[in-house]
Amino acid sequence: MSSGPRIFDRRLLRVRQARARARGPATFLLDRVATELGERLSAVLRRFEVAADLGTPTDAVRRVLAASEKVATIVAVDFNAVRLDGSFPRVAADEEALPLADGSLDLVVSALALQFVNDLPGTLIQIRRALKPDGLLLAALVGGESLTELRAAFAAAESELEGGISPRVAPFSDVRELGSLLQRAGFALPVVDSERLVVRYDSAFALMRDLRGMGATNVQHERRRTPLRRATLKRMAALYAERFADADERVRATFEIVWLSGWVPHESQQKPLKPGSAVQRLANALGTTEIPAGEKPERSN
After folding, report:
1. Which terminus of the chain, N or C, has fewer Cβ atoms within 10 Å?
2. Order of strands across the sheet with 48-54?
3. pTM above the 0.85 mark?
4. How far is it, in rounded angstroms, from Cα 187 to Cα 133?
5. Mean pLDDT of 234-258
6. What is the C-alpha end-to-end distance of the chain, expressed in Å?
7. Domains delineated in the chain
8. Cβ(250)–Cβ(200) below 8 Å
9. Which residue, among 237, 115, 127, 225, has the nearest Cα to 177 in the 3D structure?
10. What confidence tens digit (pLDDT) does each residue in 276-301 have?
């Protein structure tokens, strides 16, 4: 287990995820991501012998992979693997301490799980080591632009009624940070992109019910331990409606999904050309005239 900064209370996260499963989880976001992951993987023109699904809260990704027939063996790697069904091989493990042999996997996928890892650089390095040369990581995380409306409404309500604010929405990573982390972990051909989904609700309370159904309510170590005051909660919902409602009075909630992909280096992969090795001038390809550095183009009258 990492000894670095502890941003998230992972024990509490597991408790809340288990509670969400027992009550009936809200899976619409995860199901969408699983479908998108399958589509992205379908563009990769190869078959993978052994894949690990790392921490995904449901079997949505594994079902998509099984249906695609692009993966021979799919292993579920999850701290709560004992509660998963028997459709796939299982390994009980925390995403921060992976008991995976070096070079044992061809593919690692993960959907909406790695954003709650305290030591994401360390986890990416462990994934990199577990993959074979030319192995692929494909993962989706909740991004830093998620739930900006809820964050703003809570901050305004607490400032107004309690004279200060407390952390209510997790500080997820942004796209630029994640691209750097992939490179630092040793992945080749790293790609990071994001998409924003806007979901509409009858009220802020309906949004919070869905977050509880995802097991994704506040699990920060620095969260306030005292119960949320009812007056603050009501004021938050009112401010949310005032600032983020559409003409039909339904409110908006933004979810940013950040996609990561990277390959373990292999001699067969494309490599950038050396500077000065081009065989054709860019000006010729563009059908224009090359102007030496320091000179200015002539103006036409």
Report:
1. C
2. 90-92, 71-78, 48-54, 105-111, 131-142, 251-263, 188-201
3. no
4. 10
5. 97
6. 71
7. 10-266 (3.40.50.150)
8. yes
9. 115
10. 555 666 667 666 666 665 566 566 55
